[in-house]
Structure formats: C-alpha cells, structure tokens
Amino acid sequence: MGRRRQKKRTHVKKSEEELKNIPRSMVIHLGTALENHTLSKLVRDTRNMMQPHTAIRLRERKSNKLKDFVVMAGPLGITYLMVFSQNEKTGSTHLRMCSMPRGPTISFKILEYSLCKDVVSIQRTPKSISASSHEFLNPPLLVLNGFTNPKDASPEEKLVVTMFQNMFPPISPMNTKVGTIQRVLLLNKDKETGLIELRHYVIDTKLVDVSKNVKKLINIKSHLNKKLPNLSKTKDVADIILDPYAQAGFTSDSEVEEDAVVEVREIDDSKPLTKPVQTVAKTGDDLDDEEMDQDEDITKQTEQNSIKRKKAVKLTEIGPRLKLQLIKIEDGVCNGKVLYHSQFSKTKSEMNKLEQQHAVRKKEKENRRKAQAANVAKKNEKKLLKKQRREERKKAGEDVGESSDSSSDDDVDMEDYSDVDMSGSEEDADEKLFDDDE
C-alpha cells in the first residue's frame, strides 16, 4: 500500500494547542475476541470509520492486557478507548467506550452488526473506497437522531451523547470548509426500545445546473490524470456546452431526487481579496470595533468571490453497521463503581455498602502508594550514603573495590506502578502494540 500524500507547500500546519485539543481514539479487541475472525474484521472496519485520528495498524497479542493499553494511552495522547470483547460462555459481543485517563466507561451490548463487505454486497452500485482514500483524510460529521433534548434527557442519555460528541473534533461553521466533510456517522435511537443504530455513509455530490460535457471539463480541472475529450468532430462550441441528450447533467430523471438538490457556495480562489487584513495594536473598545469591521469586510469579500451552484447530494453507505444496547455506566476505566445499570436496580442501603467498599479500596491504594514511596526514599538515602562513604575512602587514599558497591549501582529509581499489572516492560509493550502488518 502506497504512502498517503501530504501537502507541504500549501498545507497550513496546525499549532500545538490545536493538535492537543484533537481527540484521538484507539480501537482494540481482547480475550476470546482475538480468535473470532469476523469480530477482528469488525474492529478493522471500526478503525477505518474513526480515521484519521486513530491507530489503524495497531496489532494486539494474546499476552496483552487492558492495563497495558491504559498505560500506553497517556504517552501516545489517546483520549478515548474502544474495547471489543466476547463472552466465553454466552458468546455475546460487547463494546466498551472509555474516556481516558479517569473514565467514565460506557458498556454496550452489540445485538447485531454488519461488516463493510456485507453492506457493499447488498448495494447495486457500491462505492469502492480503500483505507488510504481521500474520504478518510478528515473525521466524519456526527449526526444524532431520536435523542431527547439535553434539558429533558436522563443523566445516562446525556453522558452517552457527550461521549459520542467528544470523540470527534468540533466543527465551526465559520472556519470549516464544506468540501472537507465527506463522511457522515449517523446515530439513530429508537424511542420505544432505546436501541442505538450506528450507520456510516460517504457523501457524493454532483453538479445539476450544467450539462454532462461541462461536468467532464470541470472534473478534468480538479483531476489532472484525466485526459481532455476529443474535440476534432465538433464544429461549434455549443455542441460541447449544450448537450441535447442529457437532462441537467444526468441521463435519466431517476438518478437525482428533487429533495437532494441544494445550493452550495464555492469560493473562487482565483479572485484574491481586494482589502488585505491589517492588524494594529490597540486596546479597549476600538479593538473590538475594528475586529468587527474586519470580519464584515471578509464576509462581504467571500460572498463576492463565491459562486452559487446547484448540487445533488447523495449518501452511500459503506459500513459498518452496529445495533447497540446500553447496559451500564462505570466510574473509572472499566474498574470503578457502577453509576447506572439497565437491568438491575439497588436500594439505598446496598448503594451505601458499595460506596463504603470503594472508599476502603481507595484508602488501600493510597496506603500502598505511600508505602512504596517511602521504600523508594529509603533506597535512595542508602544509595547516597554509600556514595559518600566511597568518595571519603577515595580521598583518604584507600583502594575501593567495585564489588562492594556493585549492589548499590543496581538500585534504580522506581516509579509508582503498584496499581498497574503489566505483563512486561514498557519497551516490550511498545513492540507488541505497534508491529505493522507485513
């Protein structure tokens, strides 16, 4: 697979603050899910859906545990973790979405799912898209349907909505170009059953107000690989522009629906701004008034340089499909107390007992951390004392052997990993997690 082309001369690089604010996700599957071939394909399709801010070539092994990925998520800047798992006894598939590094964790039960190849096999005219195509250069547009108003919604529904919204970077209408949005991620909730259906689409746009031959010429302008049409048989320019056999650029009326035709403003880059934006150091209300005037000038100039065109918008599903059922919400990353459960309800006395148990566990963790920090401090003190004695003996002219203090050199500063059960070191985990597919 060829490397994706990256523009360097005209591409505007993002600042460090903007890069830090971009949410990054990691999609993994653990346990018996590694042996399920179809589930591993679903994980691969989900990674393509979450592009571009996700690890596509992530490779898990049987020796890896969930805590290995949690530990490595911090240095890599991962903000959300999606874990696919399968129950050994019942065979049911589950999806856990974790907000790093402190939670919460939302657990869904996957009732039904369809892979990308299954969705494509049903369609008459499927859309052939690879993982390195230009549709995946930008994150998808998230569309929520069937969810109640946040003012009237229940707390668990609010949390689910905010979790899905924060997994993708926000879109600003003033700065985001319409052409960069090429995919749609639809979440439809059934109000009666409470099930959430996930669908993934690609946006296709076609010109409507021009003829078929003019569309070919416009496409040649943007795609330099295409050849110019043969104009040797034409006697007049009207034969090219006016095509009597095409109806508004399409060969049949069934290709475009009337509801799908919309007007889109396209900015003409060939026309530069007439008034350059100048920044002057001012303070107070004068600065605010000047910024408003500059914004008005820019909007007027963009409206003058923009061209209104009618386009037909069509959504083509590329998969995957998921039908999710909310099971529970936990505090923390897959190990905290249960905040909500759809199948079980507990009394206040039972809730108080659970809170006491969690409080005891927190105290035990704090005591272990304090004890380990005290042990590390004692080792460091012993190490310093041995070094001082060694230097004093050297100054006195005594021969100091390295064998006596070899044990002190082996002592290294230890970090607090008392609450992390890792199968290997960080370097081994790094090699296991990021082996590229051959």
UniProtKB/TrEMBL annotation:
<dbReference type="InterPro" id="IPR007109">
    <property type="entry name" value="Brix"/>
</dbReference>
<dbReference type="GO" id="GO:0030687">
    <property type="term" value="C:preribosome, large subunit precursor"/>
</dbReference>
<dbReference type="GO" id="GO:0006364">
    <property type="term" value="P:rRNA processing"/>
</dbReference>
<dbReference type="InterPro" id="IPR045112">
    <property type="entry name" value="PPAN-like"/>
</dbReference>
<feature type="compositionally biased region" description="Basic and acidic residues">
    <location>
        <begin position="378"/>
        <end position="398"/>
    </location>
</feature>
<feature type="compositionally biased region" description="Acidic residues">
    <location>
        <begin position="286"/>
        <end position="296"/>
    </location>
</feature>
<dbReference type="GO" id="GO:0000027">
    <property type="term" value="P:ribosomal large subunit assembly"/>
</dbReference>
<feature type="region of interest" description="Disordered">
    <location>
        <begin position="275"/>
        <end position="307"/>
    </location>
</feature>
<keyword id="KW-0812">Transmembrane</keyword>
<feature type="domain" description="Brix">
    <location>
        <begin position="25"/>
        <end position="335"/>
    </location>
</feature>
<keyword id="KW-0472">Membrane</keyword>
<dbReference type="Pfam" id="PF04427">
    <property type="entry name" value="Brix"/>
</dbReference>
<keyword id="KW-1133">Transmembrane helix</keyword>
<feature type="compositionally biased region" description="Basic and acidic residues">
    <location>
        <begin position="360"/>
        <end position="369"/>
    </location>
</feature>
<protein>
    <recommendedName>
        <fullName>Brix domain-containing protein</fullName>
    </recommendedName>
</protein>
<feature type="region of interest" description="Disordered">
    <location>
        <begin position="360"/>
        <end position="438"/>
    </location>
</feature>
<feature type="compositionally biased region" description="Acidic residues">
    <location>
        <begin position="399"/>
        <end position="438"/>
    </location>
</feature>
<feature type="transmembrane region" description="Helical">
    <location>
        <begin position="66"/>
        <end position="84"/>
    </location>
</feature>
<dbReference type="GO" id="GO:0019843">
    <property type="term" value="F:rRNA binding"/>
</dbReference>
